[in-house]
Specification:
The chain has helices at residues 3-17, 20-27, 59-70, 104-119, 134-137, 147-159, 164-174, 218-227, 236-246, 269-282, 298-311, 337-348, 380-386, 391-396, 400-407, 432-438; strands at residues 28-31, 34-37, 40-43, 49-55, 74-81, 92-96, 124-130, 189-195, 261-267, 286-289, 294-297, 317-326, 355-361, 373-377, 410-411, 422-428. By secondary structure, the chain is α/β, with parallel strands linked by helices.
Length: 439
Amino acid sequence: MSSKKLLFNTFDRLIEEIKPQNLIAEQCRYADETLTVNGTAIALKPYKKIHLFGSGKAVLPMAEAVQGLLGEKIAETLIVGAYEESDLPGGTRYIRSTHPLPTSKSVKAAKALREKLESLDEEDFFIYLLSGGNSALVELPEASITLEELQTTTSMMLKGGMPIEAINCVRKHLSRVKGGKLAQCTKAKGIVLVLSDVLGDDLHAIGSAPLYFDTTTFEDAITSLQSFGLFDGLPQGVQHFLREGAAGKHPETPKSEKKGIRHFILGSNALVLNRAGELLEAAGLATTLVSKPLQGDARELAAELVDLAESYEGERHCFILGGEATVNVKGEGRGGRNQHLALCVMLALSDKREVSFLSAATDGVDGNSDAAGALIDTNSRVNAKALGIDPKYYLETFDSNAFFAKTGELLMPGPTRNNLLDIVMMVVEPNIKQGELNG
């Protein structure tokens, strides 16, 4: 089997293995009115009612799994997601919201969740399902900031190459439901089951931490925006609010965890990388999980990855990385960070080594396209030339999706209803010329 085909099959199997319902089934048990999560037993009997809430790209399969586990023990369900509703039990209220920009649907969802949490008392218990995408799906701007101003700010940050941690720092200080503010609305105890879309699984950053707390400040938000050259271009209302906050005129985000609310991480990018390594090793391919995370500018990352491949001396080997590259978008084309990174790698590869390269989003949606990413090899540039396609043009116009659509190298699993960051798998073949010399 070719390395390119092996990577395709591995990604396909990986998406199946890391489905949210599979992760919940592996790590959650319910018996004798006790819910056990990752070995921690939680007695549900003392509580009057059990409520199921949640938000994020993975909320539908997560809710399906928890409802299957607890059954009629759940008194009510209110969840917010990004996709069309699947078959859920009666009594489930599902709000389909928007991503990656917040809209009036996001505001509707935030108000509904806040009202439900506010209505609970000390005898209630809730389970909250949190996954990536929450930041856009659930939003309630601070009173002096309009939704339009928040949309503009979000769009600027996403296109400006800011890492997710910095983006969420800003979001938390412009929102009434982020950075632990949602937790302050309820008297009930509860747990949060988390699928992490953040490197290092920092609970302060995942989904903008609606039920956790925040260690960043208004000043941090301003500094982050300034470091990316964005602050002065923001809507005046946002600039004014952040400056007032830094001057102490607005309350800071909560700085300690709300007592009685515990978080459990059930899935992460580290889990994705380990599972990928296991699948490749089972197929007979040696692997290395690269400790340096996949983060930073896509062009710079591509140069580092190609250098790693071309400097490697040894037998056929696969290097695995995870995280999220960033792209400072300056064109109106279609694509995303994974397709852009794959295109950068393709252009940087020489004929020194034979390399196969896959970069893909575990949520199945890369940027503004309908692809998860792309899968290329050393021959891809030659094949593009034979088709009369200039990869440099598509790189410069930020239209990587159109390029790979023409070459047939897109990964198209469709929305996976999951979100555990991105994965890169790079297979380096033996140095044939060196082998011939040694022979």
